[in-house]
Prior knowledge:
Chain B: It comes from Nannocystis bainbridge. By secondary structure, chain A is of the alpha+beta class. Helices cover 31% and strands 18% of the residues of chain A.
Amino acid sequence: MPTPPGMSSGPFDPHASAVWPWLVGLVLVGLSLSPMLRPLGYDSFPFSSFPMFAHGRKDAVTNVHRAVAVGPDGAKVSLPPRALGSDEVLQADVTLRHAIRRGKKASAALCRTVARRIAGDPAHADAVAVELLTERHDALAYFAGDTTPLAPPKRQARCKIAR
Amino acid sequence: MKDTPSDATHAPKDMPLKPGPNGQGCSDMLSRAARAVDRWYRPVAAPERLAALRILVGGFAVAYLALRLPNLLGLHGLGGFRPVGVVSVLAAPLTTAAVIVQAVLALLLGLAFAFGLAFRVSGPAFAFVLLWVLSYRNAWGMIFHTENLLVLHTLALGCSPAADVWSLDARRARRRGAPEPVPSTRYGWPVRLLGLLTVGTYFVAGVAKLRLSGLGWATSDLLRNYIAYDNLRKHLLGDWYSPFGAWLVGHAWLFPPLATASLLLELLAPIALLGPRIARVWSLLAWGFHFGVWAIMAIFFPYPLLGLAFAPLFAVERLPLLRRLARSAG
């Protein structure tokens, strides 16, 4: 096969033969499609079955974990994802979920880390403590106006903010 | 932006396949079919189209990395290291210094990739480093599916001669008196491959929905419940959520048609490879799908929403901005 003129042509030009294009194509397309043959819900990077929306949900009842700053009067304010160590909300959500799943020690450790992070934050200058909470909600009812949790919030950890 | 690589003239019959002895029989048919597939996969295309894709994808990757730098550098604070993909070779998180080095290296190689500098090295090197850095970012329990296609496209471009024109390499070669590259199959296959990867990812996503939830995904409240749940967790976690989506979940009848349309769009993605017109229609619908996801779930997929996921299906080299850039580069 003649080598097409091109500036990257040299003694060995892989693009000039049909082998290299097919090799690259078959490997990349094959790996991209391979998650279809993997177990249900397979997820990795960059080859994924993209299961994020595929599960759906049988109902809209869900446990939501969150970190809150507690004021001197007991008022609770949601802390943003960056207080949990990430500007990405879903990454922060996973951090919170993992800590709670691992138990009291891990939850307390995360609570103290969050408290240290917000100690110097003027937006939370009045806060005296941090709590990690789990609330059970019906998301559809919540957005229909019934924001009361289905059960009293469960406190997973509480720690003071040292200043 | 009108045509796709399929508009280009076909490749010469140069695949190393042996025709049948008398032009008849099964092996001859197979040979002809193989040649037809080869001509489709490796159409003749102008080097400018591939170069335009390199600039667009590389430019996006550099901007993306730069904007995500605070996140990339702060990952160690998250805890819960769960390596995926290529970073599975790591038993523990990297040191802070190594994280900084890999981020800076990715940015520098990304610039070389986008500008087409020493592309034979910087092309594959950036593709691998981007794969590594984003795999590391995805190794903390949350996989960002907004990044998969960007990495796949970069890998394909990094393995191709995408810097033969509109690049610093090309300018240097011209000064040395090298001939101008001409349209060739070597510039057609990478463009085709990028298009295949785009439609492949949508198709895989559609199949996952069928495998996990069956047709019920399209006909029941599964999507509605998921949208309500997703917005609620973001709202309670103190982040942006979609008030529009929160309002919309109160209208149950809307969701089965929306879910059906989304599923069809994904499962029928391969039709975008049939020709330029259908590619335009599918791309527009897919873009609308991502706009809908943004509006209803506050999930921003920058790569498709900025049109880059669909760029391989269009004659992007005709974009005035790219032509101006190419002229000013010399």
